[in-house]
Amino acid sequence: MIKLELPLTHLRNGESGVIVSINASPSHHHRHRRKWGFQKRLEDMGLTPGTKVTVVRSAPFHGPIELHVRGSRLAIGRGMAERILVSVER
Amino acid sequence: MTKKQIIIALAGNANVGKSVIFNHLTGMHQHIGNWPGKTVEKAEGTLHFRGYTIDIIDLPGIYSLSTFSIEELISREYIAIESPDLVINVVDASVLERNLFFTLQLAELETPMIVALNQMDMAEKKGIKIDHKKLEEILGVPVIPTVAPSRVGLYELLQASVATIEKGEVAPSKIRYGEEIEEKIQELSKLVKRLQLPYPARWVAIKLLEGDEQIENKIRQMDPNILATARKLAEEIENIHGHSCTTVITSERYEIAGCIAREVQEIVTPEKSPMRERLHALTTHVVLGYPIMAAVILAIFFGIFSFGDYTSGLLSDLFYGLEPIFKSVLGTGILGELVWGGILEGLIAGVTIVLPYILPFYLMLYFLEDSGYLSRIAFLMDNLMHKIGLHGKAFIPMMLGFGCNVPACLGCRIMETDRERLIAIFVVTLVPCAATTVIILGLVGAFVGFQWALLLYAVDLFIIFILGRIAFKALPGDPTGLIMEMHDYKVPHAKTIAKQTWFRLEEFVKMAFPLIILGSFVIKLVEILNLLEPIAYVLSPVTVVWLGLPAITGITLIFGILRKELTLIMLATLLGTSNFAGVSGFGPVQMIVFTLVAMLYIPCISTIGALVRELGWKKALFISVFEVVFAIFIGGIAFRLLLLANIW
Fold this sequence. Notes:
Chain A is an alpha+beta fold. Chain A has helices spanning 31-44, 78-81; strands spanning 3-7, 16-22, 52-58, 65-69, 72-76, 84-89. Chain B has a seven-stranded mixed β-sheet with strand order 2-3-4-1-5-6-8, sandwiched between helices.
């Protein structure tokens, strides 16, 4: 078993991980605002660092990802999921 | 007891059964409008209970009290500034942790509050048992278990509401953050207290640490020093935790919500893979999800159009049967013509042509929404919608647009930000609605060939794609992605669906009918004054020279502003035949160009009404004018290309 840090999109269906951090877009004009809005939104939906998430399935054609988090089911667009870093044991 | 007026606000996450509770409490005494200056729906209702006249406000369903969406901003401003006598926080017992996160934020607003622990039946089915007495103790506010669809607990809810208001107690703020954060909150609260804000000082202090834009702006104007202190304190917290202060505070809130949830709920073994779980897996399946979705959507459209067609025929027989009576009363003079042809025919057209389609449309929409299937559609279509800069939720109004653009424009309210709303509405007005389909199939499909009708659809979708992308690139602001809770499937509550449909229908009639009637009156007037021919003449440089169409099409395109299918009806009237095949100067090329222009050229008058309502005059005018110019441009190019191709 080794501990890996991967973007959420790299998790297999049914695999769980713990959120390490959420990375805002690296280059953008409204950097601060964007970070605030996008990250705050994910956190408000319960995706805070330290939270355990389970990937249920990914929609085809690079569609969104279905997650189990805090006893509820969330759909997250792939672009956002790519910026969520999780630690998994494999 | 004397009659007293009290105001209660319902607040909670989306899809927790808030509107079912609202409907049961207020019955038919409801009023649905908009929040002042906003395109967010405001539902108000009244009831009488124990000598009180109770006004109930149904706040939008939200997950947090930050400033991400207009709904969140409206809710917190309402609770903090209008300060209702009580907030009933409706909580989904089957997703307790997420719901309590919101409950804790409400408590921070220091408002009188009780909790309706709703969907207890769903929780039980999922194997979750909740000790509501314990929850009551922990939260320090009354907690009433309810099952809204069967009215369980609603009487107790009202009793507890009145009792709480009479006691005049405010919900205690239950969150104690970590010591290092509490210190800073105290320090800031002291500074904030002096400012005499309408919000609780502790709440403002927390929001300042979180970097809440709206609160920061307010404080900046009053005392920029406080803002500087807040930023400094927030940085200290960031240095301790290695995460931004916003993240730390949100995490702690969720931790507390999680602790409370774990303490009061007991997970017993749930049923093995219940029906709704299998249904969820099937409808979001990588392969099967799509054919199922296509089948559902096609079945719905087929159902709506069969119903609409049948009812529409029935109603128009009925109304036109009355024509002789009206004509004998009003006479056949100019006045009679104007009243019948202008006003009444407009009204009849609205009732017979529009309503039979709109009614089942709304019913199906709310059925799908309430059951939970709409969120699965959004899940499946997210990637496709990203191609035009929107996310999965936008597919729903687009789908509506194929029926009628008006509900589709109003449906764009599900998009979270103004930017997404604007792009979605713009795209939706380009979707060929049922009336446009009548033209495409009735003219090109019938007289040129079905494959050409399909090609026109394909061209339209391509144009939507291109223009959507351009709008996406051109508009300022940042795109947002999909973040959506997918609720468990449930049996929709019929009465709530019926009510929602009724109010939407009322809204539609109020908005569209005056425009349809006014429009047909003006056109009738123009006709009576014999202005149609001159107008056709004036338009001929565009219609004849640029588009290569007969001059009379100018007239029909003007009629089409009222309702698009009128372009075809007027064309038949003016040509004196509905067999367009034999008309000279109106061959396949002209039919295709004409249909292309009619398809794109302007949102109909009702849609323009919807645009004005959702976006304001300026943007509505811009979109309308743009589409006219664009349609003429594309039409002229198509004309030349078709001539070059020389197929016929």
